[in-house]
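Dig into this one:

. . .
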Amino acid sequence: MGNESCEAWTQNAMNEAMTDDPLTSFRLDDRLIIVTGASEGIGRAFAESFARAGASIVLVSRRREKLEEVRAVITDRGGSAEIVPADVRQIGQLRALAESVQKLVQRDHRKLVLVNNAGFGFTKPAMEVSEQDWETLFETHVKGTFFCSQQIGSLMIERGYGKIINMSSTWSVTTQAGKSVYCAAKAAVSQLTAALSTEWAPLGVRVNALAPATTTTDSANERVLKDPARFEQMRSRIKLGHFAKPSDLVGAAIYLASGASDFVTGQTLFVDGGFTT
């Protein structure tokens, strides 16, 4: 590129930066966002917030009745949401999900975003972990994340654009007694995120992960509050002095789902109040 061409390109970029509202890149009006584990907790908070930012939502979990509750909240606020009951551990059900998403995309031509949020917390001493514990955890967190990414990612690749957000954890890089299997699963999710980003970046698909610290959902509260000593130990590791709320994660999720993060891929973004520092 010659000097004149380079200068012209630079000037055009500066002009666009001055005339465009920088906040518009965070809008989700052109997105169809699939959220797994959308029936409660973090997944529900994401789905409702994405809808308020303009996205059309596909709500996914095993329990249709719970998804109906979430859809009612979204539609009552003027948003749009579809329901596809599915167990992320079942590849056949993920193929059916992809077929449903394909039909929706053909109808409104939105850009696809997938949030692999389905999962559950797990704490058990290593000597007490059963084979079934291991298989259930890895099938949900790792197998489910991979094959959901594969099925929905193929639709993104066809269109030359897409965003995948995987839910990792602070436990992907830290440890605590009783967390061996959960640490291994979440470390796998972060490494899978990096590996998929390497393979799919040239095809227009960005793959990133969010890694929260302990977040105050109903299920997390039930687990942690059973053991006051563990509650205080975990809280004391968070530099900001308190656990996260689902709403604390929404800003980062909107950033990764939106066009504002189009030059970001392969990253695990820690939203942890300083837990890992």
Notes: The chain has a mean pLDDT of 91. The first strand starts at residue 31 and ends at 36. The domain at 25-215+246-269 is CATH 3.40.50.720 (Rossmann fold).
